[in-house]
Specification:
The structure is a homotrimer of 187-residue chains. Chain A is built from one helix and nine strands. Chain A starts with a helix and ends with a strand. An eight-stranded antiparallel β-barrel of chain A has the order 1-3-4-5-6-7-8-9. The longest helix of chain A has 29 residues. With 187 residues, chain A is α+β, with helices and mostly antiparallel strands. In chain A, β6 and β7 form a beta hairpin. Chains in contact: A-B, A-C, B-C. The interface between A and B is large, with 40 and 41 residues.
């Protein structure tokens, strides 16, 4: 076999290897999470009477609202600060494995829609570090996607998608979210 | 040709291929968006009289402010929650193709500067999904860059830069922004 | 040497090169910042008397709080908007090289914990552009990590980790943070 021919064969081989690895990477990046975690978190809004149990409080309201009752029919303009327990199952009384901390605000006059900025903060043997989230939550939809915008510790530099599902809603005081976290960038 | 010499040639070839592909990637990443979108959005602040038309409301103000009038000379400390229509042109009355939802706050005593956390939420045949933004908006500048920190649906895992331009400003009630979205990470 | 044997040798070589380069990339990505910056910023909270010097103001508080005094024992529910000078050393009176602009909120009833959304905004010969941050700040810890979620200008598309350290704290009015910014994605 001449060396030119050999070069050609090798060159093709090289192209095949590199293109197939690129395709594989793309496919993996696009659809298969490098890490997946499912949690529940529990929000109990302060209503003037439940100071001991409340995990969140209304801190801002529009001109027509107040801070012990979610405003109007869609809560437009209410801002809520929270420190909610995270559990592995849907039981409020299970041992918390971390805290969901941050805020949400109701931002639509006609229906319930929220915007979220918060972190999951872990400090257990299972997980150490934090996952940071931001995004729109049209909470009347069965599932809603927000962004994982970063992470620290075990979740160093993480990016991905978190799918939120309302698992329970009692009056205007308690709600429970199921969060399915799919990380597509892991370091 | 001896096999050692051939090995050497192939090795050089390999280096050239890999380095040129790396350079190409770098250049592409640095300056050419993988997706570009231009939209307008329209903010009508509640002033106590325009409840029907208002798309946003002041929900927080500093001790010296109130929630029906932007405070002081630079609005320092005012937090505004919004659900603004997004249009393809600069006409407030064009059919909205999505909603800009989230908040901004004025954060400087001496001049107008804001900080933004919001999403573009789309649910049309043209676009489904959301784009999440965060960043500083020194709004007296002609153009200002904020970050695209994530996306969902059609904008799955997006990252990039959004350039904001104030397209119109009427009194302290209506303003219109043009947003030039340049995504540099597309999945 | 037969050409088949040569092919085999080259193929192995190829595998070794590609795998070692991948390992190198991983290692670099995981632990060595592509850019590192250390700054201080200074927060002086408005308390009703220091209007001239204050760089921040309480704009939201829970039902039991007010906006000239941080509420209760852990400040739970207080939201603070700030425009703080950034300096290269720990002296409040050094020439600022930029501004830290955004908000933080206290989000725990039992101890001091905050959630931050803000930007470093630079417009000097040394740095032009902005760095955007978000994350949980359990401020009783000596060091806390938050996420760099994006950047513009000199910090185009940046991602990374910022380690916060409380450098000084005087009463409930002044505090100074040291911020060690480690970028792991630079464009």
């Amino acid at each position: 076999m001449g060396s030119t021919k050999l070069l050609l064969v090798l060159f093709c081989l090289l192209l095949i290897i590199s293109s197939s690895s690129a395709a594989h990477k793309k496919k993996m990046q696009a659809r298969k999470p490098c890490k997946r975690l499912v949690f529940y978190f529990h929000d109990i809004i302060y209503n003037g009477k439940n100071a001991r149990n409340a995990t969140s409080a209304i801190v801002s309201a529009p001109a027509w609202g107040n801070r012990t009752l979610l405003s109007g029919k869609s809560h437009f303009g209410d801002v809520v600060v929270f420190d909610d327990p995270i559990t592995l199952d849907n039981n409020l009384h299970s041992t918390p494995i971390g805290r969901a901390q941050g805020f949400y605000l109701y931002d639509k006059k006609e229906t319930f829609t929220a915007w979220l900025g918060f972190s999951f903060v872990f400090n257990s043997t299972a997980h150490k570090g934090s996952i940071n989230f931001a995004g729109a939550d049209p909470l009347m939809n069965k599932t809603r996607d927000i962004s994982v915008i970063g992470g620290t510790g075990d979740f160093f530099m993480a990016r991905g998608i978190a799918t939120l599902m309302t698992d329970a809603f009692e009056g205007e005081v308690y709600f429970r979210l199921c969060v399915d976290i799919k990380l597509y960038e892991c370091w």
